[in-house]
Design goal:
Elements (H helix, E strand, L loop, with lengths): L1 E7 L4 E4 L4 E4 L4 H7 L6 E9 L6 H13 L4 E5 L5 H8 L6 E5 L12 H14 L3 E6 L2 E4 L3 E4 L4 E4 L1
Parallel strand pairs: 1-4, 1-5, 5-6, 6-7
Antiparallel strand pairs: 2-3, 7-8, 9-10
Helix pairs in contact: 1-4
Length: 159
């Protein structure tokens, strides 16, 4: 059984025409998994509904506490991409679990989003990787502490 924690981020953003802004909405993770024909083998828990730029140390502590207390050894976390590497670093002291963070550069509700691919890729990664903390984005896996987001190129890269 894989535990999935959602924290918000671009993957769950909704565009509201009335105020011309994106806001974090209900998680689309169950829908994204169903679209990939994944209907069982996981439990879902929402932790936060925040843009990762608004995440605080207290929020990261909340994510750490939830993951640490979780009985599952395989954990997938959806997270905003801007501070995903920082949260991965906070989780890196957890040694007996396989923890994979993923997200999207475009909201899942948008037609050309990378969300479905990233969720499917992370789903496979969390099942195949050994214990550790990883970021799985756009077809690549990075270890916590050795990755950063390149804002200009809109991709993750090794440090």
């Amino acid at each position: 059984m894989i535990r999935i924690f959602t924290t918000g981020g671009t993957i769950d953003k909704v565009y509201f025409d009335a105020n011309s802004e994106f806001e974090i909405g209900e998680s689309l993770v169950p829908e994204l998994l169903a679209e990939s024909n994944i209907h069982k083998g996981y439990s879902l828990q929402g932790l936060l509904r925040k843009d990762s730029l608004e995440m605080t140390d207290a929020d990261r502590d909340k994510v750490f506490a939830a993951v640490n207390a979780c009985d599952n050894s395989r954990i997938l976390i959806t997270h905003g991409t801007d501070t995903m590497a920082e949260t991965a670093q906070v989780l890196s002291s957890l040694k007996d679990k396989t923890i994979v963070l993923t997200g999207a550069m475009q909201p899942a509700r948008m037609r050309r989003s990378d969300a479905v691919f990233n969720i499917g890729f992370a789903w496979a990664a969390v099942q195949l990787l050994p214990p550790g903390v990883y970021i799985a984005m756009n077809g690549e896996v990075f270890e916590a502490g050795a990755v950063r987001k390149n804002l200009k190129a809109q991709r993750f890269e090794r440090t």
